[in-house]
Amino acid sequence: MSPVLIWIIIFVVSLLALVKSADIFTVSAVRLGAWMRLPSFLVGVLIVSVGTSLPELCSSLFAVWEGAPEIVSGNVIGSNVTNILLVIGLSSCYAGKLVFRRKNLALDLWLLAGASALLVVFSIDGQIVLWEGLVCLGAIAYYFWHVLSGESRISEELHLDHDGQQENAKKIIKIIVMLLLATGAIYFSSSYTVRSVVKLGVMLGIGPQVIAAGAVALGTSLPELAVSMAAVRKGEGDIAVGNVLGSNIFNSLGVIGMSSLLGVLTVPVDMLWFGLPVMAAATLYFVYIVRDRRITRLEGVVALAGYGFFLIGLFTLF
Questions:
Q1: Residue 10 and residue 192 in contact, taking contact as beta carbons nearer than 8 Å
Q2: Cα separation of 102 and 302, whole Å?
Q3: What is the DSSP string of 16-50?
């Protein structure tokens, strides 16, 4: 078996393990929060919303730790593009017409546009330094305050059933054990995901940031895709749209901000001149199609075509 095939297998297995362990962590944390009688919206915002972005966060932190900070920008940019063009595209095509009634949508869209603009501005010089990361963390703190103050009700949209839930000691111990096991799995799967990306980049002559923006971003966006498609099947368009909104804001601010605490993040030329413009265009397109609180199947098809263009450009131009 060739070394390339071995590392491809390691990449696929570790990426799937990362996504699955993040899902187990999120579910277990929600159950623990319910047992602790935390308000349902607090559980939703601090656990469910962040949980779907956990793969992006962990793989980015390990990328900096392993000395490959260029992977972070590719991961974040690729995930944001994938969330909008693929997740929203598939969701609206499946639904036929994605209708939602999200309150304060205008403010949410301004926050999304602002987060994306901040990422673009900070990336222009080819690197994101500590003070820029701190600004991002301050901005994400404001976003959480905005959500927690009642502007968004993520957990209410998810219809989490916490009322009257009584967990006995045995179940609580099981939940805590699952949290610890999931944490360990996230640690190792993140590490091997990043290592395999670096190895494959060297062997195939492809920049690791390109693999991160394509394959890794697709894999780490699977939780968002799963949540959105499940929401569409239940006729909950608000969840599908809100999920992408929250995830992209957290990626642009939270993932970038926390990763910059470990070191300077480099933004390669291909991400600067191709990835970022596509992300900015996808964000503007998203703002445009949701302004009337509905996304048609045609708009979804255009989004999917845009995602195809992104992948083709990513792996042919660079």
A1: yes
A2: 23
A3: HHHHHHHHHHHHHHHHHHHHTT--HHHHIIIIIIH
Q: What does the pLDDT look like over 48-82, one tens digit per residue?
A: 567 767 778 888 898 898 888 888 999 899 999 99
**Tokens linked to 287:** 């703002």
d(CA 90, CA 209) in angstroms, rounded, equals 25
Beta strands in the chain, from DSSP E residues, in sequence order? 97-99, 127-128, 265-266, 294-296
The list of the chain residues with pLDDT below 50 reads 40-41, 44-45, 151-167
The residue written with tokens 């413009």 in the block is 277
Domains of the chain (ranges, CATH numbers): 3-317 (1.20.1420.30)
Inter-residue long-range contacts of 170-174, CB under 8 Å, 24+ positions, other chains counted: 172/32, 172/35
Amino acid at the residue 279 = M
